[in-house]
Amino acid sequence: MSSSPTPNLSTSQNQSNNKGSPNPTSDSSNQDKISPIGIQYTLKPKFTTSALGCGTSPLGQIGQTSDTAIPTTIISKEVEHICCGGWTSIFVNHNNQALFLGCNKYGQIPHAQTPFVNTLLIPQNIKKLTKDQIACGDSFTAIINEQNQIDVFGSLSIPEPLKNLKVWKLYAKFDWLAAMKEGVNDHVYITMDEMSDLIEVKLSVENEEITLVTSFGESKIAVLARSGNLYVFDSEPHKNKPPNDNNNNINNSLENNNENNENQSNNNENQSNNNENQSNNNENQSNENQSNENQNTDGKETVKGCLTSVVISPIFEKVVSVASTRSRVIILKSDARVFEVINGRLTLVTGYLGLPIFLFAGGASLGLINYEGDCYMWGCGTHGQLGNGAFLNAATPQKVMLDDKKVEYAAAGEEHTLFLAVKENQHAVLLPELMQKEPLPMAVVAASTIQFGFKPPEFDRKF
Q: Where is the segment annotated Disordered (predicted)?
C-alpha cells in the first residue's frame, strides 16, 4: 500500500542556495523543483502537468467554440508554464517552446497570420523560452531574445534605453511592461505607452530581492520582495498629461476677452514695461534652468534624459502573494489570511476552505489556490471564467470544478482563466518560505500528514 508523500516542513535547501542569485542554475539530481508560483513541490513523473481553461472563447483563448463554465483540457501533458494576456493565452511546454491561443488584433501573437488563433500555434522564428523570458499584457507580448534584449509584438512601443538593455526577467499586465536587468534583482524598469520616460523603480530597503511585479489597481504597480515587504509604484504622475479640454479653452477665452476690454487703455502704458522686463525674464530663466540642472531632489527622483529613477517604500509587510483586477486588490499574509485592500485598509476575505498559498486575478475576477490544491474564484463570472459551472458573478469565493485534478498555478485574462494542474495523487507542495515561520500554517501542514488529523470523518466527529 503506497503512502502519500510527506511534505518537508523545513526550509528547502534549494531556496537558500538560490537566494540572491537572479539566474539560479538547475540541477537534475535535486529531488525538488521550483513551481511557477515560487513555492516548492515534490518532483513528479515527467510530462504529467496539464493546462485547462474556462470562460469566453470567441477569440480562441481556450480553444473552444463557445463559452464554458467548467475548466476543459487545452493541453493534456508536458506543460511547464502558463500566462494570460487580456485576450491571449500562452503556454510553455517541457521543450521550452511557446504556444499561443487567442486574439491577434494588434499582432501580439508572434508571426501569426490571422486576427484570431483558435488552435495552438508554435511560432518557428522565436527561440526556446523559460517562464521568466515571456510576458504579455492586454495588447502586446514581450519576449527576451537570444541577445538577452526585449522583442515586443503588438501595440506597445518601448523607449530607447529599454531596447538596448540586457534583461533576464519580464513581468506584464494590462498596459505596462516591467523588466529586470541582467545580474540585478533589487530594482526593475517599467514602461507603458502613456509614459514618455523609462521608469527605474528602486526599493528603499537595502538588499531586497524582488520576486514579483504585478498590478495594484488600474494605475498602480505592486513590487513584492522575498522578505515579504510589499511596495507600490504609482504610475499616474509619470503619464503624459493630455492637453486642456475645449471647455477650459472656451472659458479661458471668455475671461480673457473681458479682461482685454477692461484693460485696453492700460496696454499702451504697460507695453514699454513689458519689453524691458522681457530681457530680465530671459536672463532669469537661463539662470533658473542652470540651477535646476545642479539641484538634487532629496534622493527621491532624478531625471536623466529618458530615464527617470524613483525610490518607493513598503506599505505592507509579511506578504506572501498579491493580485489585482482593475479595481480590486487582494493580498495574502504569512499567517494565511487573505485581505482585500479597500481605501488603504485591509478587509478580511472569507468563504473558502483550506490554507491559501497563492493569489491570482484577471480583469475583473479574483482567485486563490490553497495548500490542498483546490482553487477558489470570485468576482465577475458572466462568461464562465470562475470555473464553478455557472455563468454568474460571485461575491464570495466559489470552488472551481476540477474533478480529480489539483491546481498548482493559475492565471486569468479579461474573460478567461487558465489552470496548471496535475492528477490528485501527484500533488505535493511545500509552504512558501514566509509561511514556514508561522505557527498556524505549520500546524495545518503537520495535521494534514496524519490521516483524518485535519478533517475527521463524519462517523468519528466529536464536536
A: 1-34, 234-300
Compute the average pLDDT of residues 342-355: 92
How many residues comprise the chain? Answer: 463
Question: What are the residue boundaries of the structural domains of the chain, listed by start?
Answer: 29-239+311-451
> DSSP character for 244?
P
d(C-alpha 266, C-alpha 260), whole Å: 10
- Tens of pLDDT along 63-114? 998 999 999 999 999 999 999 999 999 999 999 999 999 999 999 999 999 9
- List the beta bridge partners of residue 93: 79
- What gap in Å lies between CA 207 and CA 188, rounded to an integer? 14
Strands 150-154 and 365-370, sheet pairing? unpaired
Region of residue 292 (left: phi > 0; alpha: psi -120 to 50; beta: else): alpha
Q: From the centroid of its chain, how far is CA 63?
A: 24
- At 300, the amino acid letter reads K
Evaluate whether 417 touches 375 at the Cβ level (below 8 Å).
no
Residue with cell 472563447: 57
Q: Rounded CA gap, 227 and 222, in Å?
A: 14
Residue with the three cell numbers 538593455: 165
DSSP lists the bridge partners of residue 222 as 214, 232
Q: Which of 92, 70, 67, 66 is nearest to 81 (CA)?
A: 92
